[in-house]
Design brief:
The protein has 383 residues and is α/β, with parallel strands linked by helices. The chain is built from 15 helices and 10 strands. Strands 7-6-5-4-3-2-1-8-9-10 form a 10-stranded mixed beta sheet. Helix 5 links the parallel strand 3 (103-109) and strand 4. Helix 8 crosses helix 15. The radius of gyration is 21 Å and the shape is globular. The protein starts with 6 loop residues before the first helix and ends with a helix.
C-alpha cells in the first residue's frame, strides 16, 4: 500500500506545476529611480557572484526536460548595470543548457545602457529582450534617473540600437492614472517602436511603492474596453499580452478544449536573489520582511539544490496561506475560471494576508478586462 500524500503537498501539487520561469537578480542596483518602483534596495550595488549562477545552472539541469525551454529571466535592479563582461560570465554556466534547448534567456531592461556591443552579446546568447517604457515622454515622466532627469530619450536610443541590430523585443508599460485615460495614444506610440508584443502593468501598490493612488476599477474597465476596440481595428499591431491571454482562454473554451485550460497549473516562479536566496510565488516578495512570514526566503541555492527547495515548498507558511487563499478564490469568485487566483504579492501588499482573496490588482488587471469584453459583446449584440 502507498501512504496517503501529506495534505499540504497534495494541495500544492494540485495548484502548481514544475517551474517554467526562473527569475534571476544579477544586481540590486538600478541606474533609474522610477517614482513608482517597488524595489527597496535599488540604490545598493550588490552583484551576483559567478558561483550563484553556476549553482543555479546546475539546479536547472536537474529539472525534468518538459520539451519546452525554461525561461531564465534576468530582472532588476537593472540587469545590464552589471556590465557586459560580468553579464557574460553569469550567462556562461547555462551555455550547455541553452545549446541543448533546455533554457532560453530573457532580460527585462530599461534599455538606457544598450549599445552596439551590448547588442552583439545579446545576439550571441540569443537573449530575448523586454523593454520597460510607459509611452511617449509625457506618459513616461515617472521614469527618471538618479538625478531626477527624464530617461525617455535614452530609452529610445536603446530601442533604436535593438532595431538596427535586428534584435526582437517586447515592451512592458506601467499604466498610471495619467496613461489609463489615453490608451489609443499609448498603443499608437508603442506600436511605432517596432516591438513584437506589448504588456500593460496597471500601477500596483507593492513593495516600496505604497503612497501613490493607483487607477480605479472603473478607469481600468474603460482602458481595457478601448484597448480591445483598438486592437481589433489594428490587427497588424503588436499583440497585447493581456488581450492574447483572454483570447486564448475563450478560444479553448469555445472549441471544446476546456480540459486543456483546466489542466494548467500555476508556476511557482522561483526568484533567485543576487546572493542565492530563493523566494517563491512572486518576485515582488523578494527583499520583503513580514511579521507573519519572515523574509519569504525558502532557502539558498548555495546551501541546498533548488529542486529540493521546491520539493518542500508546501511546508512554507506563506505558501500554505496562499493555497488557502486560492481555495477561497475558487469558491467565491466568478472570475476564477479565467484569473486562476491572481498574484501572491498583491494579496500581501494590499491586504497583509495571503489567505485573502480580492485585490485591486484583481479588479483592474483581470476582472476589468473580462467585464470590458462582456460590455463590448453586449453592445454589439444589441446593435
Amino acid at each position: 500500500m502507498h501512504s496517503r500524500p501529506f495534505p499540504w503537498r497534495a494541495r500544492y501539487q494540485q495548484r502548481f506545476a514544475a517551474p517554467q520561469t526562473v527569475v534571476v537578480q544579477p544586481t540590486t542596483w538600478c541606474n533609474l529611480d522610477c517614482r513608482y518602483c517597488y524595489l527597496p534596495f535599488r540604490k545598493l550595488k550588490h552583484q551576483m557572484p559567478p558561483e550563484v549562477a553556476a549553482a543555479l545552472a546546475q539546479a536547472v539541469a536537474q529539472f525534468d526536460d518538459s520539451g519546452r525551454p525554461i525561461g531564465i529571466v534576468w530582472h532588476g535592479g537593472e540587469p545590464l548595470a552589471v556590465g557586459r563582461q560580468k553579464f557574460a560570465a553569469l550567462l556562461a554556466p547555462f551555455e550547455a543548457l541553452r545549446r541543448a534547448g533546455r533554457v532560453h534567456h530573457y532580460v527585462q531592461t530599461n534599455a538606457t545602457l544598450i549599445t552596439e556591443t551590448w547588442c552583439d552579446l545579446l545576439a550571441a546568447y540569443d537573449v530575448r529582450v523586454g523593454v520597460s517604457i510607459d509611452g511617449p515622454a509625457a506618459l513616461n515622466a515617472e521614469r527618471v534617473d538618479l538625478r531626477g532627469k527624464p530617461a525617455s530619450d535614452r530609452i529610445l536610443r536603446g530601442i533604436s540600437q535593438l532595431r538596427e541590430h535586428g534584435i526582437p523585443f517586447s515592451v512592458i508599460s506601467v499604466v498610471s492614472t495619467l496613461g489609463i485615460a489615453m490608451p489609443e495614444k499609448l498603443l499608437e506610440f508603442l506600436t511605432s517602436l517596432g516591438g513584437h508584443s506589448v504588456g500593460f502593468n496597471i500601477e500596483e501598490i507593492e513593495g516600496a511603492n505604497t503612497d501613490r493612488q493607483p487607477p480605479t476599477a472603473s478607469q481600468a474597465e474603460e482602458f481595457w474596453r478601448r484597448t480591445l476596440t483598438w486592437a481589433r481595428e489594428h490587427p497588424d499591431a503588436p499583440a497585447v499580452r493581456e488581450v492574447e491571454r483572454l483570447a486564448e482562454y475563450l478560444q479553448l473554451i469555445r472549441s471544446g478544449r476546456r480540459a486543456e485550460w483546466d489542466r494548467r497549473r500555476l508556476d511557482p516562479i522561483p526568484t533567485i536573489s543576487w546572493k542565492g536566496d530563493v523566494v517563491l510565488l512572486s518576485p515582488e516578495l523578494a527583499d520583503t520582511a513580514a511579521p507573519e512570514y519572515g523574509d519569504f526566503v525558502a532557502g539558498n541555492i548555495l546551501d541546498r539544490a533548488l529542486p529540493e527547495i521546491l520539493h518542500d515548498a508546501h511546508r512554507l507558511c506563506y505558501v500554505r496561506d496562499f493555497l488557502t487563499g486560492l481555495d477561497r478564490c475558487q469558491a467565491e469568485c466568478e472570475f476564477f475560471d479565467f484569473c486562476r487566483g491572481a498574484q501572491a504579492a498583491n494579496r500581501y501588499f494590499e491586504n497583509g494576508d495571503l489567505t485573502t482573496t480580492e485585490t485591486n490588482y484583481c479588479q483592474v488587471s483581470r476582472q476589468a478586462l473580462v467585464t470590458a469584453l462582456s460590455t463590448l459583446a453586449t453592445k454589439e449584440a444589441g446593435a
